[in-house]
Amino acid sequence: MAETLTTTALTLKDIAREAGVSLATVDRVLHNRPGVRPDTVRRVREAIDRNAFQPHVAAAELARSRARRFAFVMPSGPNPFMQQIEAYLGEMSGWLSARRLKVEMIATDVFDPSVLAASLEALSGDYDGVAAVALDHPTVRAAINDLVDAGTKVVTLVSDVPSSRRHHYVGIDNIAAGRTAGALVGRLAGGRAGKVAVVAGSQGLRDHAERIFGFNQVMAAEFPDLSVLPVLEGRDEDSRSEQVLARLLGRHADIVGLYNVGAGTQGVAQALSEAGRDKVVFVGHDVTALTRRLLLQGVMDAAISQNPGHEARAAVRVLLALARGEPILREQEKIRIDIVMRDNLP
Amino acid sequence: MAETLTTTALTLKDIAREAGVSLATVDRVLHNRPGVRPDTVRRVREAIDRNAFQPHVAAAELARSRARRFAFVMPSGPNPFMQQIEAYLGEMSGWLSARRLKVEMIATDVFDPSVLAASLEALSGDYDGVAAVALDHPTVRAAINDLVDAGTKVVTLVSDVPSSRRHHYVGIDNIAAGRTAGALVGRLAGGRAGKVAVVAGSQGLRDHAERIFGFNQVMAAEFPDLSVLPVLEGRDEDSRSEQVLARLLGRHADIVGLYNVGAGTQGVAQALSEAGRDKVVFVGHDVTALTRRLLLQGVMDAAISQNPGHEARAAVRVLLALARGEPILREQEKIRIDIVMRDNLP
DNA sequence: CTCAAAATGAGTTGCGTACCTCAAAACACC
DNA sequence: GGTGTTTTGAGGTACGCAACTCATTTTGAG
After folding, report:
1. Does B3 touch chain A (CB under 8 A)?
2. Which residues of chain A have pLDDT under 50?
């Protein structure tokens, strides 16, 4: 009836006895310190595996009195999504200080590869872990690899740099996000035929490009009655987004759907309402104060969201697990693609 | 540029000095031990607050050598959702044992109030925390309150007992889940007029009743062209669900939507396909191997899901925080209502 | 003022690990 | 066999707190 899921607690001393060596040797093996014969290493490792030994997290943490330092490298300038991440980190301050963790925010121009790379290089040695919103660019990739080589744990946040040797990526699969947006626009259009507009920040941004790719995939395969118009670039700015979209709406009377890939949501909504096109199915990204309002008003129909609070916490947990050498709970740290409509607004 | 989010690390000794008392007195205050004058308690508390003192989690954990025991009281019998929760707890075993936590699964008939209450009472004293899938019934409520009074931390899981003094509820808002289902059925029906069928396990179950309530709310308010048929009771069984639904489908040719509130999904899908009614918008609950397949095949259109992995982990984290006297990260532990469609299948 | 009760101080021990030193043993090489 | 090097053992200290004991001081009631 009652089934135990955990094993009994062993200590290093037990492992030492099992392996027939002293505590010091076990310690050397555990921390990859030199001066142990390969054969002895093997014996110790075997004893550890055989007993599924887990070092006591609390004891380990206590013993290494040095506090851990993590840096979050984020875009400078006002970006609601990033501000939310910052806010959630602030909410964790009690949790962090109880674990003697120091988290610092570093604002930089993440869109300039050389500036970003320089910011990353400057962190080397000072931090145990770095979470960065990074561009996928050779210079940045090199900076990340340098950090990794220096022993710093590196996590990419929101936007990945898959070609680098970063330890982990905390963010969503943007192609799947685009596919989801496509399915929503198509299904919510409810069989109407017509055109679909797409507004992005820039097709040069990896995440935007991936979303558009996924979006087009689904539209082409499943909604033959809907034709996707060429992508508008709004540079994530309200005014420009409004401008380009207004022009497009003027030219096409049969637009039934709209996918806003990045920010500039305010401008997009404005253009729609000024053109009196509130029947257009409008799908966008992220739950902010603005999109929340638009969803409640029925202007937006759905938002694709990656929970920023979850991302912030996952980044910290992953960095901590990496620093401690603990396994990562992949399932827990995976960021889901949330579909948010009016009735399941968080 | 670099802004620190945490404060410097103080220790109990610092607090003692600040408050002008000895370590022993601080310890007494911190653990609510008797023998301290109210005025002194106040002084110590003030020193703690003034410095936003956080006991070092690792040190505290290490000092209390006793391992913590948590019990998960779950329904007996084969229930895929519950099995998933069990599986995720199993995946955490490394994480658990590194923290010297013991989690035990206790299967019982959660639908029989007296049996459930007896199971709960039996736990008293042996466990630091209990997570229970519980019925909302006076007898159960009393058993929960008894546990709480005995100092055990109690968390309700999936289904709440709001009238009890349980410390926390880990699960979704079922009314909002029902509303979301309603919005999905209505929107995905795409303007078609007709009838909507609802299949539930039993209207006596609190969570099912709440979902139906939310569903009807939205349908009545927003989709006047759709009329909801009386709720069918399938007792969460495949065969019975298929039977009752098949009969209903035979009687009504104009059914355009279907909401399956509980389990029995296999039977519901079977009835639909045998009647050749694959155009019916089908919304159900939970992502299992079955619903995953149905979504991919296009039989189901959307599933409302509460991530069982998240629920399992949240329950453990909440119990641990409660046991340690740490604050709970409400935002983190909140269970979201996930809308899962084919393209954002996790 | 007296005396018991209450409040407080001072101190100890142990939790399991990290990190360090120093000496002893084992080994390799000529 | 002697030398130098590598490997191993033994042991200590520190980390911050929980939990406890025992002596001492303070307090309040009579």
Report:
1. yes
2. 1-7
Q: What residues does B71 pair with on adjacent strands? A: B104, B130
Put simply, the answer to whether A67 touches B309 (Cβ < 8 Å) is no
b/e map B172-194, b = 16+ CB within 10 Å: bbbbbbbbbbbbbbbbbbeeeee
Whether A331 sits inside 8 A of B309 (CB atoms) is yes
Is A311 near chain B, with CB under 8 Å?
Answer: no
Closest to A311 (Cα-Cα) out of A81, A64, A95: A81
CB contact under 8 A, B309 and A327: no
- Cα Rg of chain B, angstroms: 25
Model confidence pLDDT, tens digit, residues B164-203: 999 999 999 999 999 999 999 999 998 889 999 999 987 7
Among all chains, which residue has been given the structure tokens 């979850």?
A310
Q: Which residue type is seen at A110? A: V
Separation CA B288–CA B341 (nearest Å): 13
Question: B289 to chain A nearest CA, in Å?
Answer: 16
CB distance A311 to A336 below 8 Å: no
* SS3 per residue for B121-152: HHHCCCCCEEEECCCCCHHHHHHHHHHHHCCC
A30 CB and strand C closer than 7 A: yes
Q: Which of residues 40-59 of B touch A (CB under 8 A)?
A: 52, 54-59
Nearest CA in chain A to B70: A4
- Tell me which chain B residues have a C-beta less than 8 angstroms from the C-beta of A344: 176-177, 179-180, 336-337, 339
Would you call A331 and B341 a contact, using CB atoms and an 8 Å cutoff? Answer: no
Structure confidence by residue, pLDDT tens digits, B203-261: 767 888 999 999 999 999 999 999 999 999 988 889 999 999 999 999 999 999 999 99
- In whole angstroms, give the CA distance from residue B28 to residue B323: 18
pLDDT tens-digit series, residues B73-99: 998 877 777 888 889 998 888 888 888
The domains of chain B, with CATH numbers, are 12-55 (1.10.260.40), 67-171+308-336 (3.40.50.2300), 174-305 (3.40.50.2300)
pLDDT value of residue A6: 39
Chain B interface test: which of A5, A93, A180 (most B C-beta within 10 Å): A5
Work out the number of other CB atoms within 10 angstroms of the CB of residue A2.
11
- Cβ(A264)–Cβ(A235) under 8 Å? yes
